[in-house]
Amino acid sequence: MSRTIDVDTIIKVLEMSKHDIGMWDVLSEFDEEVEEEIIEFIEENSEEFEIFLNTTLNHVMNRLKMRIAFASNKEA
């Protein structure tokens, strides 16, 4: 049995998800001991990092939406 999901639903989920991810979500993935310098740098430049992160998330989500739309058109 194959499970499918509507492309519009996927796109809505992607749109909503980019607003759910913040700087602290990303920082929680770092190992504090190993990557201490990186964490300190990000914390010291938190405003700039947030701008970078939000811009990157928008770009990635838009790319994913385009790829999903393209893939779904090829399947139809």
Reconstruct the topology from this structure:
Blueprint: H1 7-17, H2 23-27, H3 36-44, H4 46-75
Helix pairs in contact: 1-4
Approximately what portion of the residues adopt beta-strand conformation?
Answer: under 5%
Shape: elongated
SSE series: HHHH
Helix content: over 70%
Number of helices: 4
Main beta-sheet annotation: none
- Give the terminus-to-terminus CA distance: 19 Å
Unreliable runs? none
Q: Averaged pLDDT, please?
A: 85
**Number of strand elements:** 0
Structural class of the helices, strands and pairings? mainly alpha
Please state the CA-atom Rg, rounded to the nearest Å: 17 Å
Record keyword descriptors for this entry:
76 residues; mainly alpha; 4 helices; 0% strand
What does this structure look like?
- The chain has helices spanning 7-17, 23-27, 36-44, 46-75.
- 72% of the residues lie in helices and 0% in strands.
- The two termini are 19 Å apart.
- The chain has four helices and no strands.
- The chain has 76 residues and is mostly helical.
